[in-house]
Amino acid sequence: MVNFEDLRDWIDQAKKIDELAIIEGADIKYEIGAICQLSAKNQGQAILHRKIKGFPPNHGVITNLLSSLKNINLTYGLPTESSIRDTVEAFRKKIPQWTRDAENFHPRVVESGTILENVVEGEAINLNVFPVPLWHELDGGPYIGTADLWITMDPDTGLVNCGNYRAQLHDGKSVGMMATHGHHGRFHRQKYFDRGQPCPAVLVVGQDPLLFANSASPLSVDLSELDFTGAVRGRPLPVIKGRATGLPIPANAEIAIEGFIDPGAMKKEGKFGEWQGYYAGDLTDQPFLRAVTLYYRNDPILTGAPPAKPPYDDAGFWRSVFYSALLYNDIAGNVPGVKGVWRPVVGGGYYMQVISIKQQYGGHATHAGHALAHCTSGAYNGRYTIVVDDDIDPYDLEDVMWAVCTRSLPTDADIIKKPRGSHSDPLWHRTPARAGLDSTNPRAIIYAVKPYEWRQDFAPVNIAGEELRKEVFARWKDNFNGRLKTI
Fold this sequence. Notes:
Blueprint: H1 7-16, E1 20-24, H2 31-41, E2 46-50, E3 60-63, H3 69-76, H4 84-101, E4 108-109, E5 118-121, E6 143-145, E7 149-153, E8 160-163, E9 167-171, E10 174-176, H5 184-194, E11 199-204, H6 209-215, H7 225-233, E12 238-241, E13 248-250, E14 255-261, E15 267-269, E16 284-286, E17 288-296, E18 301-303, H8 316-332, E19 338-342, E20 352-357, H9 364-374, E21 384-389, H10 397-407, E22 414-416, E23 443-448, H11 466-476
Parallel strand pairs: 1-2, 3-18, 4-12, 20-21, 21-23
Antiparallel strand pairs: 2-3, 5-17, 6-9, 7-8, 7-11, 9-10, 10-17, 11-14, 12-13, 14-17, 15-16, 19-20, 22-23
Helix pairs in contact: 4-8, 6-7
């Protein structure tokens, strides 16, 4: 059960399970970003920075909110000691239920909230008062929005969307909104632009990890992330109405910037180190939010989740866990004998997807591979789909790659041409002639399974059986000074 109300409640609970570290005196220029990457690489604790150089001592930056499995489970109200497999299975069961229940958990409008402790309007706004890091060494500027949520509304339907799009701090009164093709917030923005109207929007850069995670999740276009969050929490999210836009703003958030995105108004944006592990794109003209109202708590805490080369990517591990559950659910009713689905961190939660099956008929592996590669969650921005037998742990990349090396032949792989890709793919060649075109990329399905026709005659594996390994582990693990951690 989710029993925290805001980011500060979550911090207190993370402390209790030893999943929070506090660092004092770090520099916003690259140092906070590097610390974040090191923690992510080790699936480490959340990092709360205080006494940041050049800023009031009680202003904070928190990163790595979802870098560890314990913190992921804490955020969703799941048992914190669950394994990866257990967490993926829990998500599989709960996500459909949360989706169905969302219509019963619309946000609750309140008149007060901690976000109203400080309200600044118009010319008095100065966004430079917050410790906004330069996350990567080649970034084009500081990015105030990485673990953020952009709140927009569809002018036709009134549906509110919360999306996680990067936001460069341009100056004291404006921030960029880099929302690529296909994202719901960009659809909303364009509808206003087509009418010749400014798009009302709110950028929240200090919310609890559940709101951040849901804003970064590929939920249905007709589902509001605020409603979905209420369903996960089991109670409606309290919101205030923005003074300038009327949009709902989480009442207990740390920092919220309300304003308008004007059609035709652009500022230079980028470069920025993205989740694939590269600086994606060049310096480009992008729309920006013109700040009208600034809300923030006393001693505010800025949330950050800077992407980076996996596994240094702050939210990369969470993305693998949550997106695996979505993918699993997409194919579970169409492919029999599925024993596990995993999107390894090394692929950023997209580029590699693994499915483990208990083979039941000739062509079963082909069925599973193509179903995974073409379903709703698997069709976007993939590269490699790997099918393994049920004796392979899909959540163990070494086990998977052993199967690839010993059970697959390059000549048996299927190549799919022109599925949906991403503009930030480092292999998408950017030229003036291709500007604005949708990107596509080929992908391979690798069959790392025993050939069905003679699977019973396949060479046996030469390790001790699982039960024997468990017995030996239980009896002798204390003789290894804590170095023996897994069977």
